[in-house]
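Pipeline run #58 for the internal structure catalog. This entry was flagged by the ingest filter as a single-chain record with no existing model, so it goes straight to prediction. Upstream metadata was stripped on purpose; only the residue string is passed forward. Reviewer on rotation: M.T. Logging verbosity set to normal.
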Amino acid sequence: MSNPLIQAFFVGRAVAETLNQQVESALTNFMSELGKFDAEQRENLRQFTEQVLERARREEELSMQGRTSGYSSDYGSAPNQEQDLQAMIDDLRAEVAELRAELQRYRVNRSV
């Protein structure tokens, strides 16, 4: 290898191959870590979803237990329950009307 031009060619070729191997290795490691991260995040999301659904199911059961105990106590009070329901609807309508009036006052005061 007395010719410096030939020596430079082989050195350049070796540098390119080594660089290519390192880039390939880094890319492979990156893709592997990305795959692990994706799998972990999917598992975390699945666990979170399960926790939310379980909590919602428990809350629903607790809510239904409270309602069934209140409703099953006396079947003769159905007219009374209808009056209570109507009273609740009337209260909600009044509250909505009050909120609408308050919103209207806010809009008028804001535009002045």
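catalog note: The mean pLDDT is 86.
catalog note: The helical segments are 4-71, 78-111.
status: ready for reviewer M.T.
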